[in-house]
Fold each of these.
Amino acid sequence: AVVLCAVVVLLTATRWPYGALVVLIGTSAMPVFFVEVIGWKARPEHFAVAIISLAAAIWMFTSKHGLRLDKLDYWILAYVLLNFVSSAFGSSAPALTLRWALQNSLAVLSYFLIRCMVRDLKILRNAFGILLGVGVLESIYGILCYASHQVFDTSIGVQVGQYLSDVAAPYGSLYEANLFGAYTACGAVLFLALYLFQTHRLGYLICFLVASLAAVLSFSRVALLALVVVVGGVFWKDLRRRKGKGGKTILAFG
């Protein structure tokens, strides 16, 4: 925990806001790791949110930048509030569910921190690039965990018996294999869209194949079905664009 906090502080202070964005997006893909703090399971994103919230507050105060809320933000705040209300008055174990509601609100706070830091198209492009980088690294980590289990019979990052008694499914640094499959499938779609609609860069195609392999190895049926359907939709959209029927498609990220 001490090392993690030191890394978060260093990255946050190194180059604002990109260091903080790396920390937020990176730690959001590491929920499987935790340390016990007064009986609470403190995860990497909890440390990151606490430290970056303080840094963001100081930055907004010194630079006189405020956070303008829109309609979606108010809906998200209402969702967080309802979690606390239902936990306090509708739960059979209010103390336990209120703690979960608090931990959930810390995760939701990441959204507002990113909204605070991403203020122009340049920062948005770089934040999107960070998201893609984290996605492909998570895919590679999960694939390596699966390969290590198959070759050396290790158990790091894999769930044995998730679907069948003799089938091991990787979860990487996420909670479980279904989430890993959904996460990597989303990354695969993003890479494919960039490859088809922007420039036919070989790197995007390789990353698409890596993320797709990770999604397949997760054995998550819902993630695989969604991947097939959405990839088909992306190819269909690209075909319409090439025939001039889908209008002009522009991706601002590269």
Amino acid sequence: IAKGMPYYQKGCYKRALEYFLKAHEIFTSYDQREGVAMSLNNLGAAYRGIDEPESALILFKEAYQIYSAIGNPAGARQALCNQAAALIDLGDLAGAEKSLEEASKIKVGVEEGTFIPLMSNQGILLTKKKEYTKAEEILKNALAASDRENLSDIAVVNSALGNLMREKG
């Protein structure tokens, strides 16, 4: 996973896939379910990166099942958010909404309810549904709640805001 992440972060998704697949093989051979779920989630993200949302969706669903079975709410919530993103890519807005609703019910620790991937996906979904006012509110709240050190989250939210502005003309 660690060797694949730099490639993933640079957008070299096919190269990242090689490492994530190797990680999946290793975790599976040692029956390390946490690692299996993590590698499935990362594989799904890489498949989304190479525009294969159908494959990504299968991987995210399996990651969610494993995370749920082993009692990892943070992993389960992330997998659901990723699943929603793949469903949005596929044009299944109702399915994406259902995944995001389920993800929003998962509480992790004592956090205050601001999970940026959930908020950004909600904003993207609302934009696709042409509910621009709600989308803008959620995305601006996500940007305000973002950790200034987490440039990836900030980039995703700003991209979603830019797409919203383009949609609004």
Amino acid sequence: MPRIRATDDHHDIRRMFWAMFDKQDRFKGKCEDCGKDLQRKDAKIHHRKYEGATVKDLQIVCNKCNTKTENKNLI
């Protein structure tokens, strides 16, 4: 069975996550994976897909860490 394309507005979802990160005072201007200095406009919200994942499993990372080989094509 083919996947059904989501019709959600991803910009609204990102705004929701950033509001949550702000409330938690979580973004410190650094990549949470490698520690590189990071501006908010360049930050990526990274997650691994697995059963039982929660919002706490999200990471704020740089583009390089987000596109690591081990993070590509996750199912």
